[in-house]
Here is the input.
Amino acid sequence: MAEEYVRKTIKLSIKIWNAFQEKIEKEYGTTYKHTSEELEKAIENYVDNDVLDIEKTKTKINNLNVENKNLQEKVNKLQKDNEKIRNELLENITNSKKDENKIKNLEDALNSTDNKKNICENKIESLEKEIQRLNKENTNISNENETLKRENKRLEDKYIEQVEETNKQVKENNKIKNKREHTQERLNKTQDELNDTLKRLEKYSFAIGQVKNMSFIDRLFNRLPEEIKELQPGKEEDKIEE
Here is the structure.
């Protein structure tokens, strides 16, 4: 299946366009065919970067979610360990205070566990804020993409409207041209008929003069001048088309 192409009309700064042309000329030696190729590359890079940024953001969010889940599991495990230590501590305190060193170690372990828990909770809070920021950033990117799509659709509609208006004007111009040519043709035909009529009138006038100057004998024997004999019978004039 052949690749499809579109034609677009865009407005650019002449300074930027000239710099773009000079760079292509410097790199390839000519702008022939390379201008459209470089424009297509620029558009592809723009689109691919947007998609790549979104995919990176999604990947980062997924990684953060996995890390958050792992940290939450660690917190749950630490809470269970903490609860276990507390229970063991209470059991030891209830049963006996003989082993003070053991109690001290358990207290240290409990404090260490509490510190680890606080660290995990702080990290979870930080990760949650990062997730919120990334979600907001992802929403902004999606909104920008929607805005670009709407702008592209508006430009396409405007281009189609301009093409239709141009076609309409071309048809109107053709109608006016055809009507003018038809009118000119009728005028030329009328002028030719008028010229023919004036010529015949001139011959008839001359012939009538010749007849008036004929003698009685010539009229009697119908000896008409050659100019009268050459005259053609009058033709009914054609009606002029409206």
